[in-house]
UniProtKB/TrEMBL annotation:
This is Uncharacterized protein. It comes from the Eukaryota.
C-alpha cells in the first residue's frame, strides 16, 4: 500500500515494527500480531493443553461406572446375563406415565450412597428403604427416574425442556448438585417470553438462582406483554408474593436500568 493511500485510509504507518500483543516487545514484520517467540510459546501451550485434555478424557473413561441402564453395555458387557444379581437396590417411580406394569430400576447402593447425601442417610440408617431394598420416589415419571439413575453412574444425560424440569427437581431433592446446575443452565438457555413467568415461579420453588435472574430480567424487560399472559394471572391467584417481587424488580429497573442483568 502506498503512503498516500495509507494516509487517506487512516492506516497507521509502521516504521520500527509493531508491539507484540503478548509481551509488548517491538518486532518485525508487522503482520502477525505476536512476535515469533510468543507465537511458538503459545503453540507449545496449545499442544500441552490438548495432551492434558486427552489425558483427562481417558481418566474419565476409566473412572466412569458401568451403568446397568446403558443398553449398549447391557448387550456387550460380559456379565450382562446375570447383571441384575450384582444390584442390591430397587427404585420405583410412583407417578409413572407408563402404567403400573412399567419395570422398576435396579441399582447399586454403593453408587447411590456415593453420589447423593440423601441416599447415603437413607441407606446407611435403619430406615424402611434400607430394610426393604426398595426406594419409592413420588411425583416423577419412569423416564425421568431412569435418566436420573443413569446420570449417577455416567454423569451423562440427554435433555429436553420437560426432562430438565423433572431432573432438576430430583437433583435438588437428592442433593446431586452437578446435575442440578447442568439442568439449570439448560433451562436458563431456553427462557423466552412464552415460559418466562413459569420459569420464574419454578426457579423460586427450587432455589435456581441463575434461572430466576434470567426469567425475571426477561419479564421486567417485557412487562406489558407479560402481565397480559394467562400465566401471570395464575401467579396473581396462586402466589401474589411473587407478583410483588416482579413489580419491585420492574420499578428498580426503571430507576436503575442496570439493576437486573
Amino acid at each position: 500500500m502506498s503512503s498516500s493511500r495509507r494516509e487517506r485510509l487512516g492506516t497507521p504507518r509502521y516504521t520500527a515494527g509493531m508491539r507484540c500483543i503478548s509481551c509488548r516487545e517491538v518486532y518485525e514484520p508487522p503482520d502477525a500480531g505476536t512476535c515469533r517467540e510468543c507465537y511458538e510459546e503459545a503453540s507449545e501451550t496449545e499442544e500441552e493443553l490438548k495432551r492434558e485434555i486427552e489425558d483427562l478424557k481417558s481418566k474419565i473413561s476409566f473412572l466412569k461406572i458401568w451403568s446397568p441402564l446403558d443398553p449398549i453395555h447391557h448387550q456387550n458387557h460380559r456379565f450382562s446375563a446375570s447383571s441384575s444379581s450384582f444390584t442390591d437396590i430397587v427404585l420405583e417411580a410412583s407417578d409413572d406415565d407408563c402404567g403400573a406394569g412399567a419395570p422398576s430400576i435396579r441399582a447399586h447402593k454403593a453408587v447411590l450412597i456415593s453420589k447423593s447425601p440423601v441416599f447415603k442417610a437413607m441407606l446407611e440408617n435403619e430406615m424402611e428403604e434400607s430394610r426393604s431394598g426398595i426406594i419409592k420416589i413420588s411425583e416423577v415419571s419412569y423416564d425421568a427416574l431412569r435418566s436420573f439413575v443413569h446420570y449417577l453412574y455416567t454423569a451423562e444425560v440427554s435433555l429436553d425442556e420437560g426432562m430438565a424440569f423433572e431432573l432438576l427437581v430430583l437433583a435438588e431433592k437428592y442433593q446431586v448438585k452437578h446435575l442440578k446446575s447442568f439442568c439449570e443452565k439448560f433451562m436458563t438457555s431456553k427462557v423466552n417470553s412464552e415460559n418466562a413467568m413459569m420459569s420464574f415461579a419454578f426457579a423460586h420453588r427450587h432455589n435456581a438462582k441463575n434461572l430466576l435472574e434470567a426469567s425475571l430480567s426477561l419479564i421486567t424487560d417485557n412487562m406489558f406483554e407479560q402481565v397480559n399472559r394467562d400465566e401471570y394471572k395464575e401467579l396473581v391467584d396462586e402466589n401474589p408474593r411473587l407478583v410483588v417481587e416482579i413489580y419491585e424488580a420492574y420499578l428498580a429497573k426503571q430507576t436503575n436500568p442496570n439493576a437486573i442483568q
